[in-house]
Amino acid sequence: MAKIIDGKVIAANVKKQVREEVEKLIAEGKQPGLAVVLVGNNPASRVYVSNKEKDCAECGFKSYEYALPEETTEAQLLELVDQLNHDDSVNGILVQLPLPKQICEQTILHAIDPKKDVDAFHPENVGHIMIGDFRFLPCTPAGVIEMLDQSGIEISGKHCVVIGRSNIVGKPMAMLLLHRGGTVTVCHSKTKNLAEETRRADILVAAVGKAGFVTADMVKPGAVVIDVGINRNAEGKLCGDVDYANVEPIASAITPVPGGVGPMTRAILMRNTLTAAK
Ligand code: NDP
Q1: Mean per-residue pLDDT for 95-107?
Q2: Nearest to 245 by CA among 233, 73, 157, 59
Q3: Which of 38, 98, 176, 255 is most buried by its number of CB atoms within 10 A?
C-alpha cells in the first residue's frame, strides 16, 4: 500500500504561510494584487480562473479579472498587458492559456513584465530557472517538489524519470529535480523502450495528458509516482496519466487525481504572487 500524497492538505499549508505574509503587507497598507486575464469562452479556463480568484481571496490578495471576448485581437490584448505592466496596484499578471487562434501565445507571454510574470513563462524567468537563481518558480513543477519535500521524500541521488517535455511541465520539472540532486531522464513521444526507462525510476513524474498511460508494468516496485496529468476517462470522470488502481499497490507513494498536483500548482501561483509583491 502506497502512502497517498495529499495535495489538498499540502496546498493548504502553503496558502496558510502565504496568507500570514500577506497580512503583514496589508497591515503596512500594501495589499498585493493579481490580475487574471481570460480571453474567450473555454469552459475549463473559466473554472481555472474562478479557482484562482478563490485562492486570491483565501490568501488576502486583491484579484482583478479581465474577461475579454473570443474575437479579441492580439493588439488589444497587448494593450491590456502593457496597461497592467504599468499599474502599480498589480503585482502579478496571469494570462490564462490557451488563447484564441488569432493571438500568438508567445508574443503575449513575452510582453508581460518579467517581474510580474507569476507563471514564470517569460524567457527571462525560464533562464533564471535554468541557472537555478530563481525569481519565480514554475508553478506545477515547484508544486511537485513541495509535495516531495513535505512528504519527507529525498530527491538527491535518486533516479528521476519525467515523461513529457513541454515548456510548462516536463522541461522545468526536469530542471528542478536536477537542481535538487536528482539524476534525471526526460522521456517523450520519440523515446524508444519507454517502459524500460520508467522502470528505472525511483521517482516517476507523468506529464503526458493521456488517461491511464502509466501502467503497473512501467513502474519499479517501491517507486514514488507523481501524476501531473488531468484528463477525462471514458466515463467523463477526471483522472490522471497513471493507472492508479494498479500502480498504487506497488508504489511507495503516489499522488491522486484529483487532489494531487492540481491544488499545488494553484498554491505555488499564490506564493509567486507574494514574491512579486515583495
Ligand atoms: P503537452 O501536450 O504539452 O506535453 C505532453 C508531453 O507528453 C509531450 O512532451 C509529449 O511528447 C509526451 N507524450 C505524448 N505521448 C507520449 C507517448 N506515447 N510516450 C511518451 N511521451 C508522450 O502537455 P502538458 O505538459 O502541458 O501537460 C501534460 C498533462 O499535465 C496534461 O494532462 C495537462 O492537462 C496536465 N497539466 C496539469 C497541471 C496540474 O496542475 N496538475 C498543470 C499543467 C498541465 P512530444 O514532446 O514528443 O510530443
Answers
A1: 97
A2: 233
A3: 255
